[in-house]
Amino acid sequence: MTAVPLPTSEAFLTDPYPLYGRLRETTPACRVELPDGAPAWLVTRYADVRALLADPRLSVSKSNGNGSWRGFSLPPALDANLLNMDPPDHTRIRRLVSQAFTPRRVENLRPRIQQTADALLDAVAEHGEADLVRDYAGPLPVAVISDLLGVPEADRHDFRSWTDAMVSPPDSDRATAARAVGTIHAYLAELLAAKRSDPADDLLSALIAARDDGDRLTEDELTSLAFLLLFAGYENTVHAIGTALFTLLRRSAFPLDPAHLGPSVEELLRVEPPAPVLLRRFPTEDIEIAGVVVPRGETVLLVVGAANRDPEAFPAPGEVRPGRSGAHLTFGHGVHYCLAAPLARIELEVAIGTAGRRFPRMRLAVPADEVPWRPSYRTRGLVALPVTLG
Ligand code: HEM
Q1: Is any ligand 1 atom within 6 A of the Cβ of residue 339?
Q2: How far, in Å, CA of 48 to CA of 55, rounded?
Q3: Structural domain count, the chain
Q4: For 28-64, what is each residue's pLDDT tens digit?
Q5: Is 229 in the pocket of ligand 1 (CB under 6 A)?
Q6: Ligand 1 in reach of 233 Cβ (< 6 A)
Q7: Span 88-132, pLDDT tens digits
Q8: Angle between helices 139-149 and 233-250 (to 10 degrees)
Q9: In this structure, which residue's CA is closest to atom 21 in ligand 1?
Q10: What's the alpha-carbon Rg for the chain, to the nearest Å?
Q11: Could you tell me the residue range of the domain that residue 56 belongs to?
């Protein structure tokens, strides 16, 4: 099948849903050419995406790909992470990290998340206006993940620029991304050495103990895990908070009713997943998807952004209807289901609830169609969210 180029236009990046909707109706497994020239299959129906996420014939390991997928070029010490591993290695490491990532550790973070959200809003209150991405959605998750992992206060300010350089825009600017990856790797090695000599009550120290106790995590696995926890989750959370606030403001649905915060957050996550195109999968044998045979080793991209708006699964899918039935796929499904979904949900509830309580008359400072989106089909996030606080 010939591949159609995935658009790179601003119109598509600002609103990819019309195209995803057409694909879902006409070509639910569509062979496309990605912006870097690599071919891939986009799968867009809810039932297919959900089934494939749980299908052991789809591997996340590049070793099962035919080499056409480029992605980030991570050094082995960062690449050996859960998102690139299949069972049984995945099962072993996931079990270890789940032990350290206990519900208690996550729930204990709630007061600190609240304190951080309040402090960030205190800082903007006197100006009467803010860029909610720069001033709120960005710094909040850095503080939260740093608290959880035990990253010292003084080191935190660099994170945003590192991740920006690593994931951001020009998928073509590989040299900048590679430099950022090198800096991050060196930083993590230093941080892990410091935690090893001076352990504390934090997740990194717990993981080091798991690694050092019986050698169940290799050094590369440990570094990769720290990398994944610090950066993968952080980026998604920034965009989820920013986009959720924007969705509410542009629909005049801000502030949220505090009594329905949880179900509302769930709906916001469904309509605007921060990672609308999930990580690549590689079929380990030829498989049929939506009536088409996808050859072994080709790249399959599961488009959660399309699946979450499939009217077969969610009637009137564009509407935010708190409490509707059905499970969205924003946190994935199956063995790779987001390890930190409970933490992300707490962050979103606190971030959106606190902004609503503190600034119920907050409004967009520019027309909604002038709010800039990041120029990436993989990430659904805003560059800035200018508001007046009211
Ligand atoms: C709104 C915020 C978040 C969203 C939407 C999100 C989404 C996801 C998704 C979709 C996956 C599965 C990817 C796939 O199957 O291809 C995933 C995996 C993962 N997420 Fe999250 N995530 C969020 C926040 C976080 C945070 C804050 C952390 C860390 C503290 C985190 C850590 C992880 C880890 C470690 C995995 C890998 C799990 C595995 O492979 O077993 N995530 N996340």
Answers
A1: yes
A2: 10
A3: 1
A4: 999 999 988 999 999 999 999 999 999 999 999 999 9
A5: yes
A6: yes
A7: 989 988 988 887 778 888 888 999 999 999 999 999 999 999 999
A8: 150
A9: 338
A10: 21
A11: 4-388
